[in-house]
Amino acid sequence: MQFNKYIWDLYKHSETGKKAIETWIPSADFPESEFALDTDKSIFKKFLNSKNNYIAGEGKINWYRFLADYFTKKDNFTRNNYHKSYRHWILEGINLGNQEIIKSNNYQLWVVDISLISRVLYGLYPDNFFPYVFDDFNLLNKIAIEFEIPLPKIPLKKDWEKRAFYYPELCEALNEFKSLHGFSPQELCAFLYDFAPNNIGNQENDEIPFPSKAWFVGGNKVDFEYLDNAGKNSRSHWQGNPDARIGDIIVMYCLSPRSYIHSIWRVFEDGFVDPFFYYYNMIKICDPILIDKKIAKRELEENAIWSKNPLVRKNLQGINGYPIQYSEYLEILSMLESKGVNTQDYPVIQKTNRLEAAELYDERDVEIKLIEPFLKLIEYTPDDWKRQMPVKIGTGVRYYPDYCFAAIANRGEETAKMVLEAKFEIKTQKALREAYFQAKSYALRLQADKFVIASKEGIWIYEPDNSTYKFEKYQHYNWLEIENPDVLYKLKMTIGKAGLCIN
What we know:
Largest sheet: 6 strands, mixed
Number of strands: 18
Helix content: 25-40%
């Protein structure tokens, strides 16, 4: 939705709003009790008994105050070109006397410690910087989508230099939004951390949908205690595959020295990229089932199916986010059952005959064997749609949407109530995004009320929110779910002939 000044003003003058805004009044004073961090750096020893304001007691340094002192004593900060100043700090490094505290070009530190660094910079230069204290980047991205804030393109995973310089680019994007709406620095913070999250709604589903895929992730020594004590309601974020979707199955493998499959989890939010997360690709997992009788790495290597898996053959290197085939996951369940484990409550990927890969070879197969039978189920006849209707977009350019419903084909004035675009497969978020932009362009050109994307993985339904389509706002159903009578009725009322009011 677009930013609504009236609603914002109501919030700003409410007790909740006033309290939130007051919370973010910039301050360069960082209490010792809250931010004192342990350090064993020998270069600090001669300062531990001094009266420097960044000393926080015996053996401790207050990194916030140390950085605040450092940034204020530098004479190269320019408010009109804070990008340049930020770049200079990173390239120069941070030194205490002749001692190098943060090495020059230490890009990784400026990425993973952005919460600490950004809070200091906001306290010193609130007109230029904002405190980045999100638990993960996905929430900021959702806010940006909801309120139409154009964020800079996320750098590639291995490009640590660009990831380090991504923060000032974010600052610039949010500063433009701040100026556009006349926010003070603390009002921007209240907007980001209180107003916006409460106005984009709870986007977590109460019920996790059927899994469509299984994935491996790995835990190391640092994770073992958490994993062993995980309970039914445990939730966490993990390094994983950004193409993992809500409902998918996660097989947790404990790395050396344990080297065994530890537990089965579920994904409760679509995977995403977080430029400030060290491992970059993040998933959110829940509902763990701890396995009493573990499956050891040796057992995978000796298993008839798993011994052929490329991941097992390369000693399970690169396990985080590795896709597990349907037959391989079933084999894991079979191996557990052979150990006497009751897998009745374990999640499974259910398939129907309509989704057998041998029956679907290309996009036209998807149309004939999946889409058109489905259209009949929601009460359409072939007379209700036009296939490959030519539509002029721009000068002399014609496109051909796969299915247009209640279409009027007057040249140059083509319209339709709904557009359906077919694809052979959509296995990744990237593929879905590409299909979304294509179908959306057709829908806008034809003044359609909604549009649908369909592939062998299911259907995605997009309806406008306040006259605007949003990539992340869709209803998705796989073909198994569609066979449920309640779901089918809902689809009839949403995208069926009755729902579109086609005579």
